[in-house]
Amino acid sequence: MLPRHLRFARPLALLLGAGTPLFFGCASASTREDPVEPSVLCADQLYEGTPLPAGTSIVACGLAPRSELVDVVDGVVYTVSPRGAFFRSDAGSSQRTLLYQGLADASTPTYLEGRILFDGWSGTDERRVMGMLAIDAHAPTPAYEAPVVSQAFGYAVGGRVLADGLVRYVSESGRQSVLELDVPSGRTRRLVNGTAIGLTPTWLYYCAVDGEVRRIRRDGSEDQLLASSTVPSPHCGAELRAVDEEGIYLTRRDAPYEIWRFGPGGREDYVATTWEGDAEILVPPPARLFVQGPWIYVLRQPTGVHGSDTLSRIGVDRDEELLVGWGTDLGPPLFRDGHVYVAMTRDGLDGPVDGIVLRLDVGSL
Questions:
Q1: Alpha-carbon torsion, ordered 134, 138, 139, 143, to 10 deg
Q2: Residue 315 pairs with which residues in a beta bridge?
Q3: Which of 116, 157, 167, 193 is 20 to 30 A from residue 133's alpha carbon, by CA?
Q4: Pairwise CA distance, residues 316 & 307, whole Å
Q5: Is the pLDDT confidence value at 358 over 70?
Q6: C-alpha separations of 362 from 135, 161, 239, 292 in Å
Q7: By the 8 A CB rule, do 287 and 301 touch?
Q8: What is the pTM of this model?
Q9: Count of CB atoms within 10 A of residue 362's CB?
């Protein structure tokens, strides 16, 4: 059995090849935002001379650096660029189509029933309207003319609208309360006092005004205490948490990076400890957590100019942490049909810079 740090580092070493530094980056990789020709970049190599590892494929490429992954539906990859350009890319051919050009910082994009929904602005400066916008996920929509679904504007928990209806949970600006918003009608219902921090099909997770972490059934029928305001700190306002039907998973920004699950009644269960590195291998602290089945995925993002983002996973009740992927501007993972999808910037030193989406077979990890 290899020492634990070697089990973490070995997949990365195989991907990079002998003699390649463990962490590296290109300082200019995130400065370019214009897409490049996919015919130049769509290949079976991550970088020139570096073939893709087994079980990994490029399903979208030629995108603007720092593009975000919206969803993957029926073999189509949906992304949005930092300047508000929405693309659909065929996962088999990587052929992409510009669906819409809007204003930058289109927030909370969501695929739902053949449309992409997002908060933003529609129209020109003279007749600009703010609200939830909807564009066709199959055919282009004229630039800056996305139809407005609702002018009830707010922050959607988790950045997603659940497919069981156009329901959002909005943390009111300037108030410590959470509204349930029905988008088509604009009707709202004040659900709890606090700040919304997580959402599952059954539960809304929130921080109460006194600092407690709680959850309430989405029908409002039951409210449960999960964690007090004392451990761990902080809970609220940080990304170092993830939720599922069992409870909320929390960790710290300082070593040791222990992950704890807090359940109903304040039950505390130790889950795992993510690796904090050693004298030979520098590992940045966790930046975000994600839960998928028996696995917790840990996204690390270096704070300096140099270094690559990494995505690793660690089994619940197991301390063996394995690397899933690495790259510049690595985005949150998306879990679909036994695969993990991640967006990143391909910053080859001798080639063009573009945004790509990788598909990783969970069975090959």
A1: 40
A2: 295
A3: 193
A4: 28
A5: yes
A6: 31, 25, 24, 11
A7: yes
A8: 0.81
A9: 16
Dihedral sign, CA of 327, 198, 321, 302? positive
- C-alpha atoms less than 13 angstroms from C-alpha of 1 in its C-beta half-sphere: 3
| Chain centre to alpha carbon of residue 25 | 21
Span of 119-128, 217-226, 327-336 with lowest mean pLDDT = 119-128
Q: What is the pLDDT of residues 197-239, one digit of tens each?
A: 888 989 999 888 888 889 999 989 999 999 876 544 445 655 5
Reply yes or no on whether the pLDDT at 60 is more than 80: yes
For the segment 345-354, what is each residue's pLDDT rounded down to a tens digit?
887 666 568 8
